[in-house]
Amino acid sequence: WVSGEPELRLLLGLLAEAALPAPALFWVGLKRNASTCTHEEQPLRGFSWEGVGGGTAPQEVPEALGRWVQEPLRSCLTARCAGLHLAADPRDGPSWGWKE
User: What InterPro entries does the annotation carry (predicted)?
Assistant: First the structure.
């Protein structure tokens, strides 16, 4: 999971070094359960980090991590995942954002 800006910068740097074709979408553990609604006022819009290895992922995230390429669908009925989207041409806008 990505709990802060330093981790996000590290992840973005590693992906840049890998020279992957863009646009690209990577699932990094963001999920919204079927019983959880979309919350537009929250940075992760109601999504939360899946725990890794039985651990508990942090639920609070900095506002700076609330960048969405496309707002998620408003729902309280279906489980959804979101991934880290890397833009094809960062000159046209932000180089990253979350995408359902």
Answer: C-type_lectin_domain
Q: What is the pLDDT of residues 31-78, one digit of tens each?
A: 888 888 888 888 889 888 876 555 555 556 778 788 898 899 988 888
pTM of the complete model: 0.77
- CA dist 47 and 37 (Å) reads 9
What amino acid occupies position 39? H
Residue 88, token pair as written in the block: 């094809």
- The answer, yes or no, to whether the previous bond of 43 is cis (omega within 30 of 0) is no
Q: Is residue 1 assigned to a domain? A: no
pLDDT-derived band of residue 82, with 50, 70 and 90 as boundaries?
Answer: very high
Here the tokens at position 71 are 């707002």
CA 93 – CA 77 distance, rounded (Å): 32
Domain extent, residue 34, equals 22-99
Beta bridge partners of 83: 27, 99
Whether residue 14 is contained in a domain is answered as: no
Let me know: does 48 contact 73? Beta carbons within 8 Å.
no
